[in-house]
Amino acid sequence: LDDQCIGCSYCILKCPYDVPKYSKKRGIVRKCDMCHQRLAEGEAPACVQACPTEAIRIVKVARDRSPEARKKASFADLFQPANHSIESAIPVSSITLPTTRYVGREVPASATAADVEALVPQHAHWPLVFMLMLTQAGAGLLMAASGNTAVTLTGASVFFAGMGASVFHLGQPLKAWRFFLGLRTSWLSREILAFSMFAPIPVALAAFSLLPHFPQVPVPEMVADLLPLAARITSLSAIAIGLVAVFTSVMIYHDTKRSLWRFPLGAARFFGTVATFAALANAIVDPSPLATGIFIGAVLLKMVPELRLLQLGEDEDESWSPDVHSARLQLGPLGPILRSRFGIAFVALV
Known about the structure:
The chain is 54% helix and 2% strand. The protein has 13 helices and two strands.
């Protein structure tokens, strides 16, 4: 529904058929609605009427969404051939049980798009990039701040900068309050809820860390006795809720069923960022050789999955796969961004 869309564009990422399109003018995502106004008048959709060879038609179908129906879904009858290969660029129809049917020649399992080898980056979502990076970094700093004022304030600032960046990713940010409508099925709704629950924690941690610097502030004795316990509970809550929030971010991308965003890789990236900044905070609070070594180890471990993926793109004889294609994109058109990422990691180690 146009009046409920917030323009987050996650449906574009989720759709394996590249159907939804973002409208910059309206700030929402739209897709073909089968010309429902024409159907209501008993007329065929515009594309059906316009086709000169009558190659398109529309029929009503009964759609069973039950788990049993998904198990029985025939890939041959739908979009996907029965002998589908995981290396194929064709999406698996069991993801959505589409009603679209192709009745031409049988599609071979090895079928790929004509431009499958073309290294063309997709539209950049920079607000989303900064939102993910900064919220994870801020959460990591806050998890290991241990009451250190500088680390706590830095972590809170970084986290809220990420939350602010998320607003610019939405086409209709004023409608974001409707996120609760999708809590049952949408990982984005769950992410919004999780980070909303996490948001008060940086404020509380900052208050606890700043309070000792203002002894002139009157605090009742009973409240003062409870402050250490409250600070401890808040710190533990930062860890628990922060990890849950990052988990929801991982699941948003895993749920798209795209190879590069599968759970092991996504979790390694997202939780790796959290762990790296938590280790950095620990090294600042406790500048010991052990803490420094843990930080260096966290940075190196986060780079391992990235380097293993990039190795696939260096071999020109490697057969096409989603991972190989992604690696070649990073080594080619996205090379400057890749080099800057590893440059930042190198500076952090130095």
